[in-house]
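Input/output pair, single chain:
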Amino acid sequence: MLYRNHLARFDPENGKPIWINKEARVSSDTLIDAGGILFAGGSDTLSVDAATGTTLWKNDTGSSSMALAGGRLFIAAGGRTYSLDAATGETIWEERSYASDLILKDGKVITTSYRNRRLTQCLDPETGSVLWKSDEIYGNNITSADGGIFIALSGTTWRIDPATGKSIWKHGEDGGIITPYRGQLILNGRNTSALDPESGRRLWKSSWINGFYTIGHGYLFRSFSGTAAVDLRTLEPWFQYSEEGDAAYDNDNYRAAAESYRKAVFGEGCDDGIVLYRLAYSTERLEGATERTTALYQSAARALSAQYPGHRYIEPAQAGAGKL
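Output:
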């Protein structure tokens, strides 16, 4: 878990840090948990003991993407792809692949890039030699799902053949960060949309839930200029909460919000800390401080501390938990 861009471990019961490793600034996009050993990347690449937070090794190659297999750590960093010994951090090989993202598929390293050079390549994991490359397919995001490889840029998504790099289909209207979910490719770009991974056909599109999001329990939660969600089964908007202040809401608004959050938590089993906090807050606005709201705030504080260390909702959740 990250705390102010540093790798950290927190006690899930009280939200207090057990350890914080400040060897390097790291990113949640480059974090691998390998059974007691953590690999993290950012300004440098680290291997850390998960129990103690002790740095096992540090390599000065920063990383934007990484994957672990066969005792090797593969890293996309600074326009190059590296293979490191996972036990020692020593560099085994490096290739000028211009990579911004990479994955492992069928025992091969596949990288993609669009900034310094528009290029997708397949590398031999043992030597780093190029097995195939394509300058017609490129992106800032690559993922594997439903047996295929998908590459996306802001307005284009491809499915490619991992053996040859050739395009199986190209969708030229939607792209962005790809999240595979229940047989759909959810894309977060200029809009949020979903594609069928087999055909590339658009399944749905929404312009009002674009922005940063997380997916779980059948819902897509967005947090950008407010909080919103869409039911991924019905594709209907579920709720939207404005960040503009109390003036935007009257009791009917809070009642509708509270009912939506109760449905998520108690009906769908959602345990996201932000959703729990929103439930506690909207309920308190309707009922005042009660034993129920205190319990809701306590649950929210625990979840937020474990899931989002340092989040601005933790302090008000703890305050709400202590009102009675």
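The longest strand covers residues 26-33. The mean pLDDT is 83.
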